[in-house]
Write a structure and sequence with these properties.
single chain, 347 residues, alpha+beta, Nucleotidyltransferase, domain 5
Amino acid sequence: MTEQGSINGDRLLLGIDLGTSRTAVMSDRGYKNIIRSVVGYPKDIIGVKMLGKTQVFGDEALKRRSALTLYHPLQDGVIRETGDGDYNAAAELIRHVVAMACEGETGAPSGIIGVPARASIINKELLLTVAREVLSAVMVVSEPFMVAYAMGMFSNAIVIDIGGGTVDICGMKGTVPTSDDQITLLKGGDYLDERLQGAISQQYPETQVTRNLARLIKEKYGFVGTTDEPVRVTLRAEGRPRLYDVTDEIRTVCESIVPEIVEHLAVIFRGYDPEDQPEVLQNIILAGGGSRIRGLDLMLAQRLQEYGKARVVCVDDPDFIGCGGALKMAQEVPPEYWNQVGFVGGQ
């Protein structure tokens, strides 16, 4: 590769991990941020007066939700195709994260954006249509590929990326992964939140459990296998706080995605040459927010024992490793070669 300055000139380079639950952004000038992938619009003039603006993003939108109409415009990691409202909210979200990264900077911004491994051509074109409004050059790549690129794991490795909308499994074989090397399961963190909300409500029907509250419980206490202490959380019944034991509910829900992950992980694994398979078993990477579920790495390794001794390692920084890999790729690969690495659409 040539020197970075000659590749990029005065461009401001961005790496963006566009997620169903969170969107993370990094720039080559030190910017780093993560926000919830939610956009809120005031329901009436009172909301506009209270907030002093006509749109709100991220945690602020969730905090002010009673005054807002909320849009979660990314479904399964790609822009929803259910109506103009979701498309417009997605466009606003992308404009917002790019604008924050560009604040006070000079130079035309360019970026690489991560999406689920098996996102359709239509999904990618829709995303590019929005992104081209704010980025002078843009490429879409699969999220697990970004993780592998960040770690320099280009061959004989498998990445499992558990995000809000999807679980992506990607086999690295020394080349840009093809569709045959990648599998997307539509059972990510949002699926677990929904199941946990239902499980707690079924066990304790008198409680008030929202989807957001279930998510917070999962993110703080999520585990598989065994735990040293029971999980007790404060919930409200008819407005009154009380401690409830939700250990079994959390374990059952978090373990519910394990069989399907192992099944499809085995499919990717068997696609390697037999002489490479022992090395592959030692290079299984667990990424995404779901990698924080305690004990998941050990359980996956145990479930793979019939293939040999496996080693599953959690990434150090699941929030930013994806966009960090995208930024690293943008810095190292000249834009004229992007169409050989990812999807740049029809232009």
